Amino acid sequence: MATYTPPLEEYGFLLKEVFDFDQTMAALPAHDGTDAELALSVLEEAGKFCTGILEPLNRSGDEEGCRLENGEVVTPRGTKEAYCAFVEAGWGALSGELEFGGQGLPRVVQILLDEMLSSTHLSFGLFTGLTRGAAEALASHASDELRRTYLPRLISSEWSGVMALTEASAGTDLGLLTSRAEPVGDGSFRITGTKIFISSGDHDFGGNVIHLVLARLPDAPKGVKGISLFLVPKFLVNPDGTLGERNAMAVGSLEHKMGIHAQPTCVMNYDGAIGWLVGEEGRGLNAMFTMMNAERLFVGIQGLGISEIANQKAIAYAHDRKQGRSLDGTRSPVPIIEHPDVRKLLLTGRSLTDASRGLAVWTAMQMDIAARHPDAQVRADAGDLVALLTPVIKAAFTDFGFETAVASQQVLGGHGYIREWGMEQFVRDVRIAQIYEGTNGVQAMDLVTRKVTAKGGTVAARFFAAIRADLSTPAGNSHSRLIREATEAALARLERVTAEVLAGQGNPATAGAAATDYLRLFALTACGWMWARMVGAADPEVSETQRRRVGLANYFAARVLPQTIGLENMLLAGPDTLMAVDLS
Amino acid sequence: MATYTPPLEEYGFLLKEVFDFDQTMAALPAHDGTDAELALSVLEEAGKFCTGILEPLNRSGDEEGCRLENGEVVTPRGTKEAYCAFVEAGWGALSGELEFGGQGLPRVVQILLDEMLSSTHLSFGLFTGLTRGAAEALASHASDELRRTYLPRLISSEWSGVMALTEASAGTDLGLLTSRAEPVGDGSFRITGTKIFISSGDHDFGGNVIHLVLARLPDAPKGVKGISLFLVPKFLVNPDGTLGERNAMAVGSLEHKMGIHAQPTCVMNYDGAIGWLVGEEGRGLNAMFTMMNAERLFVGIQGLGISEIANQKAIAYAHDRKQGRSLDGTRSPVPIIEHPDVRKLLLTGRSLTDASRGLAVWTAMQMDIAARHPDAQVRADAGDLVALLTPVIKAAFTDFGFETAVASQQVLGGHGYIREWGMEQFVRDVRIAQIYEGTNGVQAMDLVTRKVTAKGGTVAARFFAAIRADLSTPAGNSHSRLIREATEAALARLERVTAEVLAGQGNPATAGAAATDYLRLFALTACGWMWARMVGAADPEVSETQRRRVGLANYFAARVLPQTIGLENMLLAGPDTLMAVDLS
Questions:
Q1: Mean pLDDT lowest for which of A138-142, A225-229, A534-538, B131-135?
Q2: So which cofactors does this thing need (chains A, B) (predicted)?
Q3: Which helix (H) or strand (E) holds A334?
């Protein structure tokens, strides 16, 4: 089986030809030394780490899984060494704050590293993604003392981060959680409760494990307003920064899961564990959302990563595997990539993957602008767009990732169903990305009830206007007609339905009935936009690769975007038929 | 977790109120004593076997899996006892030929038993489905002597059947297979070769294992015309019918698979194993197709079975699980079945499942007519419709089954991803049904290149005319307007695209580019037809259940059938964009 090839050519194309990364970064004082060449050379090295160290561990990690020995997590053979090598090489600190020892590279570079990590070892990448999210939450909300103590070693990834939200009866509805925090009197608290589904809850890599735990103070009000956030370390930290005694917390058991077997997904028991308040009392969910938004984007990128590798491997297989007769009837057997129905499986995945990556890079650039631009209004505007796109990226990219993994598995036939080729693992692993960090239904509700309606709908309107402006800008070549027209039509559908969704909020079922279909319509339209931009930038006379991009855009316009017609129709049908059925 | 409830009420509704089973059977001399009451009482007993014996073994069978000990297959604890109880109770012989000891019940009853088997234990059901298919192939093609020796004990299921087709380099393209058969001189042959992915290849249930093996005679021509079919028993049979010495064949290894872990999927080595020719030399594929068509319908029913149980369990969970606020804002937490986006996951699965079952029963009745009607023309006409529907049922029902299992898993959130609730097993198990017995892409190619064009397109035209006739027959009540109109529109799309597909066969890529989208359009339209019939038969004043059927039909019309609009658009776009992309 062909090994994974980091999509560096695609990265270069996006940074240099589609988005003008250099100019965008030059406007951000923190990044004005970072150009595409630097970014690409970093990513090339990161790609070597992913293919050399991580990919070889992916299957054995799945087969071996994690286990609990005397209450301690044992990760699969090689995981610890890979993690230490990752930290040693500085990959964990790539986009971390310079102030706390990070390398301060832009978010754009970070998400492309995240993509390669997710392609080659999803379970491993999740350790690093959670650590970065925890660092971001602490950077935004923790006291100076907590930041000084914990941030440098979280940013280096020497210590790892964990988000501890879910309880058996409190998943989507965090207001129901019952974990308690009692003030000790010295500024610390004792945390008691049981959390489930805790990714990276513990490990055997050495270092500390920093849990961000949601719990209730005594006399806190019911619901989400009574929730506060606490930093709870596995090991208490001595004044000199060394690890002190073990905190009163333990892994109760490991979950047995469909996939991500190399990830220790823990039931965590906190038995009066010492912790410290992060942010204000009763504002725990607000502080946690800094981490959750970072993780939602990261999880979307997990979907992208699996899309990429599954599609790559299916294409390689379809070139090698010979079955059946050529279309003109003269040759047999032929590589199955000649068969139209096999091509459709490959092209749908490829066209979704490349467009998604474009949208990811665009969004990450908005994140860099939101974080670093000198003009406050520019920062705020970019931040609004990131907020709008966050649920779309999380849900649509993981849906596309799952669909692409399943379609890629189908290309291999029976060989896709057995372990040997690795395709079935991609399907099992990526499935979690549609569920955790807020299910994709929760993301869709966030989009229709908060993000699209934010600021009177002006943020969404600005996003749609940006798409329309690009579609009506003359392209550098004449090959984008089909994708421009198809995207224009999809955008018109999206705008019509948006007006309907906004107008329909009088019926309380309207938003929920629309949510997932609306999010998919939104995402497909945004992908069409990306193809229009990518083809506008690609001169097909220049290379095979650019000719291929034109072909993919035409395919996407003709054979994928028509989904939006059906979606509009379903959405305009409204909630009535959906609420009328008695399902008892 | 709620246990599975056999859908007996639905079976009764279909047999008595939608399809007039009694009158149809009365016209078939072989079945004129079989009425709906008898069928339902048989199915009620079968349901008890499935819930009492099989369902409790499903999860442990998955976790334990099969293993090979000293070359012998060991199935999970309890499987052997369940199999013996199944045979003892006579369930294996339900629809077998009376002449060879079967009970001779109609196919309609058989497929509903198959559904319940598939719901409660997919791996187990596959043993019985393959045995029946092998019996059917032998009944149609084997010599009298082979039939006398093997059929009674295959029909009782005391012995089991196996189809051995695939080789490492010959999957979809069986013309590439290389297994050899050398005549011994006494009428028998020595079979040599290695087959992979052999379901039920061996077991530890006792009895014989009868392999139907495709192989080439010496000097046979290349390609499919050189393939013959051989009966190769695990144990040679003595003249008195007792088991004699072991044949020269062995399990080389077991495949490690994504799911159906309780199924021993074998690599089989035939090392000069003794076998006998079934049917004519060089006509092995023809004989095998009797078995393959039976299995394709059976595999479609596997998809239906998983749809049913996954959706049932998700509905039960959604009633129990409380998260979030009611739509009117007054209650919290509420059962998640109140949330529109959860309802959509449940309703899509439920509306596809019930309509699919209707189509399965309709098709099985055509099979009974094709097998038993006294008028040859009636038999032939019914057989043509069965041939048309076979790829649709195999591919669409397994796609719907997978989609419904995934959507049902999503309803459970994180609980759907862990083993405990069983949902992730449904997803892993049903995934194989889209792949084996000819991938769903192969089914779609069969539909567009052979079935829809058969007899100048007259068979398909007759099917479409039957749908239109039902849509224009006045219904027994006024509740079917929405589903009739939506199905009428979908049918018009299907007919337009059919004309296009038939017309477009000049371009050799047209059929392949259309295949899978066309099959889905066909299947959704047929499901709409079924809902129109079911609602036409259901008076909502009579019961809650019938009110629910009207609601489901309206939901299907408004929120599922619009998919056909997008599909038509994609199909009319043709193959060009699909063939133009260079995927090297």
A1: A534-538
A2: FAD
A3: none
Spatial separation of the C-alpha atoms in residues A151 and A64, rounded to whole Å: 32
Q: What is the pLDDT of residue A294?
A: 86
Q: What is the pLDDT of residues A82-141, one digit of tens each?
A: 999 999 999 999 999 999 999 999 999 999 999 999 999 999 999 999 999 999 999 999
| Residue B560 DSSP SS3 | helix
Report residue B505's pLDDT band, with 50, 70 and 90 as the boundaries. low
Identity (one letter) of the amino acid at A265?
Answer: T
Cβ proximity of B175 and B227 under 8 Å: yes
Which tokens is B226 given? 């050189």
Buried b (16+ CB within 10 A) or exposed e, A2-15: eebebbbebbbbbb
What is the pLDDT at residue B37?
A: 98
Nearest Cα neighbor of B488 from B408, B574, B557 is B557
Tokens standing for residue A504:
């329909």
Q: Rounded to a whole number, what is the distance in Å from the CA of A106 to chain B's nearest CA?
A: 32
- Is B437 catalytic? The answer is yes
User: For B59-111, what is each residue's pLDDT tens digit?
Assistant: 999 999 999 999 999 999 999 999 999 999 999 999 999 999 999 999 999 99
For residue A5, what pLDDT band results from cuts at 50, 70 and 90? very high
Question: Could you tell me what percent of chain A has a pLDDT over 90?
Answer: 93
Q: For chain B, what percent of residues have pLDDT higher than 90?
A: 93
**Angle, helices B107-120/B284-320, rounded to nearest 10 degrees:** 60
Q: What is the dihedral of CA B453, B457, B459, B465, to 10 degrees?
A: 130
B440, B552, B562 member nearest A566 (Cβ): B562
Question: What ipTM was estimated for this complex?
Answer: 0.97
Phi/psi at B197 (nearest 5 deg)? 60, 40
- Cross-chain residue pair B256–A420, CB shorter than 8 Å: yes
| Helices B284-320 and B122-141: angle between axes, nearest 10 degrees | 160
- Dihedral sign, CA of A370, A374, A380, A381? negative
DSSP class of residue A259 equals S
Which DSSP category does B104 fall into? Answer: -
Tell me how crowded residue A218 is: count the other CB atoms within 10 A of its CB: 8
**A221 in contact with B, Cβ within 8 Å:** no
Nearest Cα neighbor of B199 from B313, B292, B307, B60 is: B292
Q: Do A465 and A394 contact (CB within 8 A), yes or no?
A: no
Say whether pLDDT at B474 is over 80.
Answer: no
Chain B contacts of A222, Cβ < 8 Å? none
Distance of alpha carbon B566 from alpha carbon A455, whole angstroms? 33
- A519 touches B: beta carbon within 8 Å: no
Residues of A in contact with B566 (CB under 8 A): 562-567
* Dist. CA B221–CA B242, nearest whole Å: 37
Pairing between β-strand B266-278 and β-strand B227-233 as defined by DSSP bridges: antiparallel
Pairing relationship of beta strands A189-198 and A235-237 according to DSSP bridges: unpaired
pLDDT score at A239: 94
Kindly state the tokens that stand for A556. 């996407």
**Catalytic member of B403, B437, B500, B541:** B437
Q: With both helix axes pointing from N to C terminus, report the angle between A55-64 and A79-88 in degrees, rounded to the nearest 10.
A: 140
Q: Is the pLDDT of residue B476 over 70?
A: no
Kindly state the helix (H) or strand (E) to which residue B566 belongs, with its residue range.
helix B563-572
Q: Measured between beta carbons, which residues in chain B are less than 8 angstroms from residue A420?
A: 256
What are the residue ranges of helices labelled H in A50-143?
55-64, 79-88, 107-120, 122-141
Instruction: Please give the Cα distance from A392 to A215 (Å, whole number).
Output: 29
Tokens of B569: 């658009």
